[in-house]
Design brief:
By secondary structure, this protein is mainly β. The protein has one helix and 32 strands.
Length: 373
């Protein structure tokens, strides 16, 4: 959360002055939106539903924003591999990592002390001190890496090696080399379970998941899927994994702790990236080809609503109070806001869009911060 400081204070005060009745029970905070083609970061006041005039200009086109919990900072990752720290209260870039990284490979570890990344040529794995934004260790990799993942509940880090059908697991930063595991298919996306006990490996072409025991680096089970696993989304406690991809206009539900494919739920056409709210539990599934978001009730596993949003939605972010879903529309360059209170399962399965805010060309990532009033 943020304190009422600097530009944020002024903006928040003006927002309340003009719409006190509308924002009586509103979420008080800001959304920071990375706009790739505009090359900057937009700031949206979510109490006033207004775009701030001042924008943040990183050293390259931003493609990823990483929240640093309980700190006055975000990490920005640019298309050119530059990593920088943004001081939120002053809306300024304060630090820059001199080493270029692969922009899709930067992760914050479980205690927010270390950033893990692949080098720009994907031949090294780097451990970066998050506060100083300086490399503190590196590992030479046996081949070009495809992707990495960091455990949300332990020190474990995993790397995918598609050329040799292998993955490598690093259990502690003091470990000199990775423990390798041989798979039967090329690994794609990697995700750890919430307690770090198991690594989920997605195989896009083979349409399957491999569950690997983290401690032993041994394959535990293979789970065939009806889709290519292109988008993965866990619910808050990690007990359910939602998967979308080519092959089916639906969402595959996996219970990872039971190593079980539980259900396949129908959703919009060619479903894409997802996000899940906490309370109530709704799964928001983007459909870039139809400019809609399907809302599935996780409890009943039924379609609750379909919401028409902007052009080519590809990212959904929830506010911390789970009362609003923010949908980033890449082609139309705006952010659609859906109020969860307006989602009511009914015969026509539709829900109104609350508002639309222009944020800039090709919004690709967002972080939401609440404000202490």
């Amino acid at each position: 959360m943020l304190s009422r400081r600097s530009l944020l204070v002024t903006s928040l005060a003006s927002g309340f002055a003009g719409c006190s009745s509308r924002t009586k029970n509103a979420f008080v905070g800001f959304a920071f939106v990375a706009t790739r083609d505009s090359g900057d970061i937009a700031v949206v006041d979510l109490a006033a539903f207004a775009l701030e005039k001042r924008r943040i200009k990183p050293s390259g086109k931003p493609v990823q924003l990483i929240d640093v919990p309980n700190q006055d900072s975000l990490i920005t990752v640019a298309e050119n591999g530059i990593v920088e720290e943004l001081k939120i209260s002053d809306l300024v870039i304060t630090k820059r990592l001199r080493t270029l990284v692969a922009p899709d490979s930067v992760w914050l570890n479980w205690d927010a002390s270390t950033l893990w990344a692949l080098s720009g040529d994907r031949r090294k794995m780097l451990a970066i001190d998050r506060q100083r934004l300086e490399p503190i260790a590196q590992w030479i990799l046996p081949e070009i890496a495809g992707s990495i993942a960091v455990s949300p509940g332990s020190e474990d880090v995993a790397v995918a090696f598609p050329q040799s059908n292998q993955i490598g697991i690093l259990r502690k930063a003091a470990q000199k080399s990775l423990t390798m595991a041989k798979l039967d298919q090329a690994p794609g996306l990697l995700r750890f379970l919430s307690n770090g006990s198991m690594l989920v490996v997605a195989h896009r072409q083979a349409r399957q998941l491999t569950m690997v025991d983290t401690a032993s680096a041994k394959v535990v089970v293979l789970l065939p899927l009806p889709v290519q696993p292109e988008n993965l989304c866990f619910n808050q406690d990690g007990g359910q994994l939602f998967i979308t991809g080519e092959g089916l206009d639906g969402v595959v539900v996996v219970y990872p702790f039971q190593s079980q494919v539980a259900a396949t739920l129908l959703s919009g056409k060619s479903p894409g990236p997802m996000a899940v709210s906490n309370q109530p539990q709704f799964l928001f599934v983007t459909s870039p080809s139809t400019d809609t978001v399907s809302v599935l009730d996780v409890r009943t596993q039924k379609l609750a609503a379909v919401v028409a949003v902007g052009s080519e939605p590809r990212c959904v972010v929830l506010t911390p109070d789970s009362q609003m879903a923010l949908v980033l529309n890449q082609r139309s360059g705006d952010m659609a806001i859906i109020r969860l209170a307006n989602i009511v399962s009914k015969r026509h399965k539709t829900a109104p869009l609350f508002t639309m805010i222009p944020v800039g060309s090709a919004p690709v990532a967002a972080v939401v911060r609440s404000v202490i009033v």
